[in-house]
Amino acid sequence: MNLVNFRFETGADGVALLTWDMPERSMNVITPEVMNELEQVVDKVASDAAIKGCVIASGKSAFSGGADLTMLQQGAAQYARALKEQGEEAANRLFLENARRLSLLYRKLETCGKPFAIAIHGVCLGGAFELALACHYRVMADDDKTKVGLPEIKVGLFPGAGGTQRVARIMQTGDALQFLFRGDQVKPKAALGAKLVHEIAPKAEIVDRAKAWIVNGGKALAPWDAKDFKNPSGKVFSPTGMMIWPAANAILRRETYNNYPAARAILHAVYEGLQLPMDQALTVEARWFAHILRSKEAAAMIRSLFLSKGELEKGAHRPANVPPTNLRKIGVIGAGFMGAGVAYVSALNGLDVVLIDRDQESADKGKAVIDKLISGSVMKGRATAADKEALMARVNATADYASLKGCDLVLEAVFEDRAVKADVTKRAQDVVGGDVIFASNTSTLPITSLAETSQKAENFIGVHFFSPVEKMLLVEVIMGEKTGDRALATALDFVRIIRKTPIVVNDTRGFYANRCVLNFVREGQIMLTEGVPPAMIENVARMAGMPVGPLSLNDEVALDLGWKILCAAKKDLGEKAVDPRQERVLRYMVEEQGRFGRKNGKGFYDYPADGKKSLWPGLSALAEKQLDTDTIDIEELKHRLLVVQAVEAARTMAEGVVTDPREADVGSILGFGFAPFTGGTISYIDGMGAKAFVALCDRLAAKFGPRFEPPQLLRDMAAKGDTFYGRFMPKQKAA
Ligand code: NAD
Known about the structure:
Blueprint: E1 6-10, E2 15-20, E3 29-30, H1 32-47, E4 53-58, E5 66-67, H2 69-86, H3 88-99, H4 101-110, E6 116-120, E7 123-125, H5 127-134, E8 137-141, E9 147-149, H6 163-170, H7 173-182, E10 185-186, H8 188-193, E11 199-201, H9 206-215, H10 239-256, H11 261-273, H12 278-293, H13 296-313, E12 329-333, H14 337-348, E13 352-356, H15 360-379, H16 385-394, E14 395-398, E15 409-412, H17 418-432, E16 437-440, H18 447-451, E17 460-465, E18 474-479, H19 485-497, E19 501-506, H20 513-530, H21 534-544, H22 550-557, H23 559-573, H24 580-592, E20 605-606, E21 614-615, H25 634-654, H26 661-672, H27 681-688, H28 690-704, H29 712-720, H30 724-728
Parallel strand pairs: 2-4, 3-5, 4-6, 6-8, 7-9, 8-11, 12-13, 12-15, 13-14, 15-16, 16-17, 18-19
Antiparallel strand pairs: 1-2, 9-10, 17-18, 20-21
């Protein structure tokens, strides 16, 4: 055998040990070469009488993250070539053959006649866990770092190498569907409880336990290949089946509104597959998989949520001329809602943090928030008491600016007030000097003007977090006019340490994310004034793919904040800068009714202390007329809610606020949940085509107003048939 990615040795007991350890990679992934080598190993084990069976283990610190998704992208290119050269039928056949190669290989392993056992430590996900499921025996290390799962659904795919079929033959159907739909990663005890693995053991013992199973006569027969096998939930066409399947269908629609073809395909594959013997079931799964691989949703989600996200996290926009900054200690000024969150994620990721507020009591309050957050993780078993102690020791809450000495970066999150921000900048720089990079978490004040209050504008930058900081994955890094490379590199290094995803944007009112999402919120408010029933507004937003409706979102962010921003925009930019209907809605809610949102228990919704929130009946006063709900065009409402955000994203690119379509896309999904199946605001436009998008904008603008008018850039692109990715993708990275 000619193995590069594996080591293979057979012990005196006749049990072979196959160690997966790919050279020059920190993590094992499934590639065409890995498949070739695994096939050789299966042939060898099957044909060599001296080998009793084989244990598969990993030589890395984790087992494997699964398939190399770039391989799937290449498959799409191959299909396009075959389509051109050999026609559709041949291209489809080739695509299906490629798509099911891994599935056939795993089935070969499962039916080769010799027992295979697997010893799992570290994460074992996707295609790698499907390998495990095809092995006859699975031993899992019982530690915090070890998890198994099938997360493919998160990038618009589903486990297509037997995962849907084997899981559905191991778990009760309802549980199996949940596991496949959610893509959760499961810890050892839960995996054992769900029968996803057979045994858990200390990491040092897993290989020996797997070997012992073979030595003690472990059988090379999967349960589903045994004659007396029964599905855990019985037959599909049975009284129990009839309880499961109609409900599963309804749940799928409730959760996805049919926006995610992969989720639907899972349901099909399991429903159809459970009625067939394994080999035919795998063929059914492969056909659905090939279908999904070619869906535009999967392509868009893989690009934005896997490839682009990864590239941005690795520092796609980090200036190469700045050496690594090696941050160890940071200062956070303002221990309020945001500052405490930033201090928490920093300390969680090993940074020493000086957390400053106006007085010791306020600083301590911020530290108490950190205590609460980490205690929550300890309660949930995600951190240990020792982790908590170490984290708390890294946070120095104080009112003394002298403690900032030695900080490698200082970030302020004090009140949104120029004078206060200028004051704390000065006080901090009196201690650390002007060479230490200074960041502001402002949401509305231009970075360029704040930088003027600092000693060196080139060392001043915006680092804009989203709330709640501990949950939200996106950070907007904002370049002031004079911000220099070292500030950018430092900010990106910081974001990397705290394991968030950065996008780099230029300075403008609202930066990127808030500009788009505020349009979504405003559209909901305008719909209210038009007489669209509030419940319909909320439901239509979710049907369009948004995680929550605009009214809920507005309640979470706070209506009085929206009112303040609107008043400031009117003051700075004049009457025309604000929509009179939005002004009326916010004045009514905030000034007249004192409804500030969830924070005071009343906004567009009522929030009873002891019950579920419900829409406030008083909203009907905002409707200018009563609409006949049967005449409302639902598709048009959905379009309005997405287009009003996407057209704003297009404007930010036209203005050069965002320069890279990957950032607009990733930022829109991670920052405000823009319909993930579209791949983000810009992929939504590219997916539809500039021409169709401009036509849609023009139609909406004619009916609802100039807020839908596309920028000239889009008209040019429509005329030339351009896409954002074709036009704006940085050259060296162009796919
Ligand atoms: P907050 O009121 O919860 O916290 C502000 C903190 O700053 C308070 O603890 C206050 O005591 C402290 N502070 C005020 N003056 C100070 C001074 N002179 N010296 C030291 N500390 C001082 O506000 P927040 O929601 O955390 O917002 C902070 C900043 O983050 C603002 O610029 C805001 O625009 C921005 N921001 C907020 C959000 C959000 O969702 N709340 C999101 C992104 C950015």
